């Protein structure tokens, strides 16, 4: 099964990410979300393909706002939960 995840925009209220660290954060979110989807599967509504125009990941507390890899992983887990998988 091929899984293609495309995140057009990620809005983080109350968190400032330096411009130079955004690619690291993006990569961490994409890699962890891909891993979660591969291991845990897709929501039944997405198995045949489709798009989710919006996922509300809810609020969360970031453990370390200076560790962008860890932050990306935490965000991916919240997004995965928000997808209903």
What does this structure look like?
This protein is mainly alpha-helical and 85 residues long. The chain has a domain of 49 residues. Helix content is 40%, strand content 0%. It is built from two helices and no strands. The longest helix is centred in the middle third of the chain and has 19 residues. The protein is globular. 13% of the residues are buried.
Q: Outline the biggest β-sheet.
A: none
Principal-axis shape equals: globular
Number of helices: 2
Oligomer: single chain
Helix coverage percent: 40-55%
Compact overview of the structure:
It is built from two helices and no strands.
What brief labels describe this structure?
single chain; 85 residues; mainly alpha; globular
List the topology elements.
Blueprint: H1 22-40, H2 68-82
